[in-house]
Amino acid sequence: MSFTIIGTGSKVPALVKTNEQLADLVETSDEWITTRTGIKQRHICTTESLADILYDAAASALDDAGTRADELDLIVCATIRGDYISPSLACVVQERLRASCPAFDINAACTGFIYALDVAEGYFARKKARKALVLAAEAMSKTVDWNDRATCVLFGDGAGAAVLAEGDDLLSIKLTAVGNTGPLFIPHVGGNCPFVAVQSARPYLSMQGQDVYKFAVSSMCRDIQDVIKEAGIAKTDIAYVLPHQANIRIIDAAQKRLKIPQYKYISNIEKYGNTSAASIPLLLDEANRDGRFKCGDILVLSAFGGGFTTGACVIRWNR
Ligand code: ACO
């Protein structure tokens, strides 16, 4: 017993900033950002909290699934930074939904949604859940240094959700972690403990872009090949690949190496930038709502992110 996806939802904050508008803040250009990343604009939380946009994404997924919040047996949310350290973002949204099931967050950076699917799969396998809500939300705008052109242009904010029910449509899943605080990290918020002399480091995301780039391409190729093999399918059986939206050049490089035709790759990076864990559920919801998926379609999800973490899975669309 694994699960089947019965509904999806997503929400982004209202404020949109284009590449041209960021060029007023830092020394950059639409041409540089577009050619290096594929990003044209991103959404940024201002008056909205993460819980606000995540609640809307969750409510829309429940509506799409024809499921009431009181039917849920589990809420698991992927995020690197909720509105509070405690309570978890999952608990804040659980209260707003008026659900009464266990709710908790997990942090696997951009791979978080796939990690959360794996956690949920365990609940179905142990028969502890009949319906689960898997969430992902990130406010990356609150983690980057807006004076650093090398990072602030890359990220955006957003939230996505999927409702899962008992089923057999997760055909394979793989998670990896290679613990490494060097190339990609975000320091914690500092406290004011009077017994600590050294203040915490710059509280912003720090990234060695080229190291992450190489890791991303090789891990995406390896993971996709592994989950295809484990699922017992051929590349020609794949209807769509939904890759983490970090950089269109990473996606294109992996696509060329894997030799899965480009038209099978779904992308929306130009509209949202890198929304970390929210990127794959945003993509899933857009494709669901534009009617792209047919019942029986084989979907491959693949992500990488801070940790380093990676994950991929093969899911049969069964709606
Ligand atoms: N505008 C203009 N110039 C810029 C900008 C900018 N926004 N940012 C950097 N530059 C400059 C650099 O200063 C450098 O100038 P120099 O040659 O004079 O020193 C030049 O552009 C090239 O910089 P590189 O860093 O070498 O550019 P690169 O081609 O590697 O692209 C990028 C950078 C887009 C970050 C790429 O390395 C990348 O996508 N890496 C992967 C990032 C990623 O996937 N992150 C996921 C993180 S997921 C998570 O868990 C948070």
Q: Notable features of this structure?
A:
globular; single chain; five-stranded mixed β-sheet; Peroxisomal Thiolase, Chain A, domain 1; 10 helices; binds acetyl coenzyme *A; four-stranded mixed β-sheet; 319 residues; alpha/beta
Question: What is the third-level CATH name, the topology of the largest domain?
Answer: Peroxisomal Thiolase, Chain A, domain 1
| CATH 2nd-level architecture of the largest domain | 3-Layer(aba) Sandwich
What percentage of amino acids are in beta strands?
A: 25-35%
Order of helices and strands: EEHHEHEHEHEHEEEEHEHHHEE
Quaternary structure annotation:
single chain
Helix content: 25-40%
How many helical elements?
10
| Spans of at least 5 consecutive residues with low confidence | none
Form type: globular
Radius of gyration: 19 Å
CATH structural class of the largest domain = Alpha Beta
Widest β-sheet, arrangement of strands:
1-7-6-4-5
Ligands and ions found: acetyl coenzyme *A
Write out the CATH superfamily name of the largest domain.
Answer: Thiolase/Chalcone synthase
Mean pLDDT equals: 96
